[in-house]
């Protein structure tokens, strides 16, 4: 019987690995308070701010869809596609507190027909791809009134 | 505007777009040869070579100015090479113009050419986990059409655009490009054919998304005084503005290849959007407004994106682009034809050549040489173009 795979993030430090309420990890400028995702580490993007100090901050776990689409054709590498390829949806989501839009795949089973501008979604962790040892996790958006498959959405 | 802020376009040349599979240098040389012959000047008269770079053809592509200069035969001309994603060609024009306006040279050659892979543009190879362009493919599977589709869907939601509107843009541009000898696709399509083509990134279909193409374009730019002495029978066509402005913080429209927008939580958003500001800066520099424009070449990376540009370059108010299209205003014969060349829809994209090709088309239109697609009485034209990583350009050409 195969041993269970290790769950590892597909990218380090972009999100928490909390089983129940994972969150994206952004930065907040300690001087002007502006947010950034992925985290800013060098210099504040606000042209009026000279700060180089940033606090890591968990971004809002829910937001509303700004726009959405899908990937009917398999994206080229370095995307690691399932074989056979399974089309997926992508959403750009507005976070109210941060006043920014963050993109992400939408969990499997949710098609563009299930989405609309303004749909409320929450961030979940899900499998991006797997190899023999590991299951690589990424953030995805899931409608809070989910029609997608429960098993895949919570990995 | 004062003459000392203008440069002349004495020559324009292109190698036809296609999927020829040959070395990009060959296309650049063909375009440069045509532009020089159009200008009536030998290569040895060129004092400054401004190349637009391609990043998918190895080192010669990164130093395109020198590559073309060597291929034409070293003459001791000064050189520069520009990379600005899809706006590379405009930056090459900008560099050449600056040299001329500064009085450092009289004759400059601008060249851009590309040989492209088939299918989606993919990031440059290697395992590059600190490059957002690599990461967006790896973590999101977000291709360029993903972003085009987000804008298209937003248009549908905000302004009531329909799939039929998007298809109508493609039908118009396909008709415009029918007689263009440099266009890759020269075939009429019907709205039904567009809407029957496979969905790529909902709501955009295969026939509505710009292909990747091989091609080359070149311009001979000179000082106005030099042009008046050498223009021959052609009217002198001038470049009156070159805008290559960056966005202003916070940039609140999601843009390739980013994962997020800037945050507007602590800094209020600037008035115009980035794409609007690109054209506004060009109008300001030329001292004219959208009401002075006779025709436009805009970056229709998708059919829907062309509609965004109508508003961003000020041809109509926000939300009115569909009406402009439906009324035939942007068709040749209408009030302000857009993409009379056929646009990216008929060309596909040869990245470093594309912004230069837009200027070539305006030059031919203003000289009355755009056989089969001529906009009658055209005097002033504008280009608009956008590339990833915060690049955009707009060039105003007048006769």
- The overall pLDDT average of chain B reads 96
> Major β-sheet of chain B, in short?
9 strands, mixed
Binned, the helix content of chain A reads under 10%
* Amount of beta strand of chain B: 15-25%
The major beta sheet of chain A can be summarized as: 5 strands, mixed, barrel
- Contiguous low-pLDDT stretches of chain B (5 residues minimum) are none
Helical segment tally of chain B? 14
Query: What would the principal axes of the Cα set say about the shape of chain A?
Result: globular
Order of helices and strands of chain B: EHEHHEHEHHHHEEEHEHEHHHHEE
Helix and strand run of chain A: EEEEEEEEEH
Largest interface: A-B, 45 and 45 residues
Q: Helix content range of the residues of chain B, please?
A: 25-40%
Query: Separation of termini of chain A?
Result: 20 Å
Distance between the termini of chain B: 12 Å
**C-alpha Rg of chain A, in Å?**
17 Å
> Could you tell me the mean pLDDT of chain A?
92
Q: Structural class per helix/strand content of chain B? A: alpha/beta
Number of strands of chain B: 11
Q: Taking strands numbered 1, 2, ... along the chain, how are they ordered across the largest sheet of chain B?
A: 3-2-4-7-1-8-11-10-9
Layout of secondary structure:
The complex is a heterodimer of chains A (155) and B (399).
Chain A: E1 6-9, E2 25-29, E3 35-36, E4 54-58, E5 62-71, E6 88-95, E7 100-106, E8 120-130, E9 134-143, H1 150-153
Parallel strand pairs in A: 1-9, 7-9
Antiparallel strand pairs in A: 2-3, 2-4, 5-6, 5-8, 6-7, 8-9
Chain B: E1 7-18, H1 24-39, E2 48-52, H2 59-62, H3 64-72, E3 78-82, H4 88-101, E4 107-114, H5 132-140, H6 144-159, H7 163-176, H8 191-196, E5 199-201, E6 204-205, E7 214-223, H9 224-230, E8 237-243, H10 274-286, E9 295-298, H11 303-312, H12 321-326, H13 343-347, H14 351-367, E10 380-387, E11 391-398
Parallel strand pairs in B: 2-3, 2-4, 9-10
Antiparallel strand pairs in B: 1-7, 1-8, 4-7, 5-6, 8-11, 10-11
